[in-house]
Amino acid sequence: MKTTRAHALAALLTATLLGGVALADTPITDEAKRHFGAGVNLLKDPEGARYEDAYREFKAAYAASPSYKILGNLGLTAMKLERDGEAIEAYTKYLAEGRDLDPAEKKQIETDLATLKAGVARVTVQVNVDGVTLRDQRVPSRGDAVNNQYGPVKGSIELGLRPGHHVMIARAAGYDDQAWEFDVAPSAKETHTFTLTKKGGAVVAPPPATASAAPSTTSAPPPPPPKERIRPVPTSVYVAGGAAAVLLAGGAVTGMMALGKKSDFDKKNDGSDPDGAKSLRDSGKSLNLVADVMLIGGLAAGGLAAYLYSSRPEQEVATGAPRRALPRFTLVPAASPAGGGVVASGSF
Q: Is 240 in the same domain as 211?
């Protein structure tokens, strides 16, 4: 759904809601009008629609006056924030309770609703203490991470999430944070229980089912830190790349020396010193052969480095863990009466 459609929808609902037209059994209060108007203005911000702030305003407007006229914009902002479960609920009520909806708008919302229902993943989260706040981060393959917050949770909550890779963190005052990293597929159903520990290590049992049930405590290790996926470059890539650089540079230097020998041979080959001319010719041939071998080897090492780099495996590491330092290479030119090249030195 494009931002231009969001602005058009916001303008339409502003005219109908703030103009005083409402369901007879759902009077629109001044408080609801204020929140709704603020939400519309945030959608029409010149620097770009501010969906998160607008979502909060539409939620407040609907809490003050639960009119179906607010649900269109509430569903739109929830969808933009990837709160897919809430978007489905808002759009479903909007279509069911809406009167005289614009046909184009109705068709678009029906399309968005069908797309949301086809992909939404239902995740049930249970907590062992009341008042837990859940912070969910979806990490897409491209673009910025998407963050949402839910709660406070009492007992359990069902969330409609966008499929993909998520990192969810449960937080409560006086307790250590606990993280859950997971991948969820379209239309999947998942259940997870957060068992928070009090700061200091004590585990709090879930709230008792009856008044007579007594909670129990045990000790447990702190939760593991959140992890992230990386593709580190193996040492073999640097070795192959360094070898390619050394061989190519050495081939270039040796080739230049061979050209110099050929030039000397052309000058010497005048019949005055046959033995000297033959020696220069033999030396030039040897240098040419060495240059060819080094250039071919350099190309092969470069191809190997490219293959090792593109096929490197993915690993999981703790968030914020130090990265391995890159190896360092030094190329030093070298020459001798019999030939020349470069010498490489380095450390890992």
A: no
What domain count does the chain have? 3
CB atoms within 10 A of CB 11: 12
Supply the range of the domain harboring residue 62: 3-117
Question: Does one domain contain both 47 and 135?
Answer: no
Which token pair is 118?
């086809």
| Residue 230 forms part of a structural domain | no
- For position 38, which CATH number holds? 1.25.40.10
Residue 75: inside a domain, yes or no? yes
Q: Which two tokens stand for residue 337?
A: 């009466």
22 and 86 belong to one structural domain: yes
Question: pTM score, two decimals?
Answer: 0.54
- Using N-to-C axis directions, what is the helix angle for 235-268 and 274-310, rounded to 10°? 160
Show the tokens assigned to 18.
């703030």
Q: Which of 102, 117, 132 is the last residue of a domain?
A: 117
| Amino acid identity, position 69 | K
Beta-carbon contacts of 319 under 8 Å, excluding residues fewer than 6 positions away, are: 225, 226, 227, 228
Assign 3-class secondary structure to 270-338.
Answer: CCCCHHHHHHHHHHHHHHHHHHHHHHHHHHHHHHHHHHHHHCCCCEEEECCCCCCCCCEEEEEEEEECC
Whether 269 maps to a domain, the answer reads yes
Q: Tell me the CATH number at 132.
A: 2.60.40.1120
Same domain (yes/no): 150, 210: yes
Give the ranges where 163-273 is alpha helix by DSSP (H): 235-268
pLDDT in tens, the chain (348 residues): 444 455 445 544 554 555 444 444 578 899 999 999 999 999 999 999 999 999 999 999 999 999 999 999 999 999 999 999 999 999 999 999 988 889 999 999 999 999 999 999 999 999 999 999 999 999 888 888 999 999 999 999 999 999 999 999 999 999 999 999 999 999 999 999 999 999 876 655 555 544 444 444 444 555 666 666 677 788 887 888 888 888 888 888 888 887 887 888 887 787 778 888 788 788 878 888 988 898 898 899 888 878 888 887 877 666 655 555 555 555 555 544 455 555 555 554
